Amino acid sequence: MKASVRRKLFVAGIILVVVSATIYGFIPKAIEVDLVEVSRGPLQVTIEEEGRTRLKERFVISAPIAGYMQRVSAKVGDPVRKGQIMVALEPLRSQALDPRSRAEAEAIVSAVEAGLNAALEKERAATADTEYIEKRLERMTRLYAKGSVAKDQLDQIQSEAKKARAVQGAAKAAVDVSRADLERAKKTLQDYSRRRTETRDTVNVASPADGSIFKIYRESEGTVAAGEPLMDIGNARNLEVRVDLLSSDAVKIKKGARVFFKRWGGQGTLTGIVRVIEPAGFTKLSSLGVEEQRVLVIADMTSPSDEWRALGDGYRLEAHFVIWEGKEILQVPASVLFRSGTKWAVFLEDNGKARQRIVEIGQRNGLTAEIISGMKEKERVIAHPDDSISDGALIRRRK
User: Of 1.10.10.10, 2.40.30.170, 2.40.50.100, 3.10.20.740, which CATH number belongs to 47-55+236-325?
Assistant: First the structure.
């Protein structure tokens, strides 16, 4: 074969390879996708929010009077019984005197002592006058019996005797008052700050119910004011769940609705029921700094108490409120849906090609959506469709 012919054949072969590679490069390739089947099954629509447990009945033991509390020996978590003495209050102890107050008290004692001495002298004088009048009365009585004095003189001396006795009694009472004042003045000089009172003066505060101690506000002894809280008592088996929801979500929940409690730290899911939806809302600042209107929803535990015995007051959990549920609902994962204009659409798998189809959806719970029309059971749809997929595109299931 001539060299020119071989050269032409070689060039033609190169051209053929380039053309073949170019044609092969322009042949559309199948896109790997994840396919899921349309299925039927139960569907629940829930509202999820973080909640906190709290005691249904919290008893706060407070000081009924101002006093000096003895040290509390009980500890948080200790069981208590109704009527058990929890706190003992002694009468308030007197304050120690500063130098000025002590000097004033000593001066008052000296003044009262002087007053007592004066009262004693007045009593002695009144006693002397009374004795003298009593002797004159005896003499006048004997003379009157003999007819030596008139009746008027006897009446006069009897009146003077009564007056002298009254003055003597008043002087004696004044002495008693002065002695009491002296005793009171001396008491101010005594130090009662370290003295313990007798048991009969102690006020004992008892537990109003059975349960356990949840909080001790003050453990050490010391002075407490009237009405000051000292201890919280409640029953850990009598818990409720407090959840604050957006007001727009709270209106969808009805009294008696079912609640599931998840991620509470224990095994399984706990159940409950809505007891109260408070009629008044409140404003709360979100973590993003946005003001939100919130409503408190209170739910009771319906699971056996043995399943959640580890829970206590103020424990965190996630509450899932059921606002709608159905059985044998035609459904697909929410990840297969995308917007086509103002409507919802999906990509179905049809003999290795993607076919766009408009669908009508009903209830959604964030993960799953109800299909009202547009698809049938066991049809396969593309999950997480992206911009590379279009109507009629070749697809194949990702291995």
Answer: 2.40.30.170
CATH 3.40.50.2300 correct for 59-90+199-234: no
Digit-coded pLDDT (tens) for 254-274 = 999 999 999 999 888 999 999
Handedness of CA 342, 346, 347, 349 (dihedral sign): negative
Of 46, 51, 44, 47, which is closest to residue 247 (Cα–Cα)? 47
What SS3 state is found at 196?
A: coil
- The helix/strand count (H/E) of the chain reads as 4, 21
Q: From 253, 285, 239, select the one nearest 48 (Cα to Cα).
A: 253
Query: How many other CB atoms are there within 10 angstroms of residue 107's CB atom?
Result: 11
Query: Against a cut of 0.90, is the pTM above it?
Result: no
Give the span between the Cα atoms of 170 and 274, in whole angstroms.
79
333 strand-pairing partners: 368
Residue with tokens 């072969």: 13
What share of residues in the chain are helix, strand, coil (percent, to 5)?
Answer: 30, 40, 30
Strands 258-262 and 316-333 come out as antiparallel
